[in-house]
Amino acid sequence: MRSVLALAIGWLFFGCEYEVPITEQPTRKIDEKLVGDWVIRDGEKEEVMKVAKLDDSTYIVFYDDRLYRAYHSDVGKTQLVSVQTIDSEERKYSYIAWKLSPDGKSLGLQIVNDEIIPDATKDSATVRDLLQKNSQNPKLFKPEAKFNRAKEKVLKMR
């Protein structure tokens, strides 16, 4: 049974799904500070997101018993990642903005709002154009989910 917490933040990776990534290729190499175990807590319940380096430009993410491939797809000054499900036939994408705290202990994630970037958008150039045009729109992103770095490595994979 999925926890209420997982349901509440599950939209992060499989809420709005798109056919194409923001950019076809990574816009930069991975940020080693993002690699590790991240937790989000709701009282006694805890959800874990594991972020690992696949190669110099790509992350593998394990969250809520699913695997994802993610890479930086920055648009202008907005730090974004294209996140693709890799353990399903559809292999769709989510677009997520991220913000790492200066001390590297917390990570804020916000999914792009499909009311601003419709999930029917079928090409990456249009996605980037809409992101650029709406960069100052307060409705561009859904509410933030705040993860904290795990104090110790979480070994269990559910």
Secondary structure: elements and pairs:
Blueprint: H1 4-9, H2 11-14, E1 36-42, E2 45-55, E3 58-63, E4 66-72, E5 80-85, E6 93-100, E7 106-111, H3 124-133, E8 145-149
Antiparallel strand pairs: 1-2, 1-8, 2-3, 3-4, 4-5, 5-6, 6-7, 7-8
Short description:
This protein has 158 residues and is mostly beta strands. It is 13% helix and 35% strand.
Describe the structure.
There is one protein chain. The chain has an 8-stranded antiparallel β-barrel. The N terminus is likely disordered. The two termini are 12 Å apart. With 158 residues, the protein is mainly beta. It has one domain: Beta Barrel (Lipocalin), CATH 2.40.128.
Instruction: Tell me roughly what share of residues is in helical segments.
Output: 10-25%
Order of helices and strands: HHEEEEEEEHE
User: Overall 3D geometry?
Assistant: globular
Number of helices, counting only DSSP H or I runs of 4 residues or more: 3
The poorly predicted ranges are 1-9
Going by CATH, the architecture would be Beta Barrel
**CATH third-tier fold name:** Lipocalin
| Amino- and carboxy-terminal Cα gap | 12 Å
Structure keywords:
single chain; Lipocalin; 8-stranded antiparallel beta barrel; 3 helices; 8 strands; 13% helix; globular; disordered N terminus
